[in-house]
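W.,

You were right to be curious about this one. When I first looked at the sequence I had no strong expectations either way, so I just let the prediction run and decided to look at it fresh. Below is the sequence, 179 residues in total, followed by the output.
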Amino acid sequence: MTVILAFKKDIKPHWNFITKFMSKVVQYWTGSNYYHVELILEDKWISSNTKSGVHIHSLKPLRDTSFDYFEFTVPEYTLEQRKVLWDFLRRQTSTGYDWKGIFLSHGIALDIENHDRWFCSERVTRILQQLYVSTLMDVKPSRVSPARLYDILCYGLRKLDSEEIRDINRAIGYQNEQK
């Protein structure tokens, strides 16, 4: 099965002060251009935001230039494994953002997490573990930042070029592809 990770790098000028500030802090703290990560799995875009937590949306067109898109393949899984994964994802929807976990795991490294809430890279790492991505099986999701996730996977990831993005957009029915 193909998985696409969307690593967010650009900060939008119209965002509020807190969102811009926190994005810059993550970039500075991790020494990376990436401060956020989302996951595209099957026909769903799985994201989280600081106001309301995890969301599952119908797939968006891949034309947002504030993301770098990376594609890789995971082992096929059974229908039962698929059901377990999607049940897990549905239970996480709108659970809230894990501010305490991100601060206590990354800010002051106490390794304390909230098991009922998620921050972006923690959630994506846990999903990839459920998909048996071998390089992540021994990693604690709450200790993974977007930058660390990128570093762990970067040798196996393949950045999509603009032609591949247009092909994906065509396949999902979007006519106004990226130019």
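Here's what jumped out at me. The domain at 2-171 is CATH 3.90.1720 (endopeptidase fold (from Nostoc punctiforme)). And, maybe more interesting for your project: Residues 140 and 178 are 36 Å apart (CA to CA).

Coffee later to discuss?

I.
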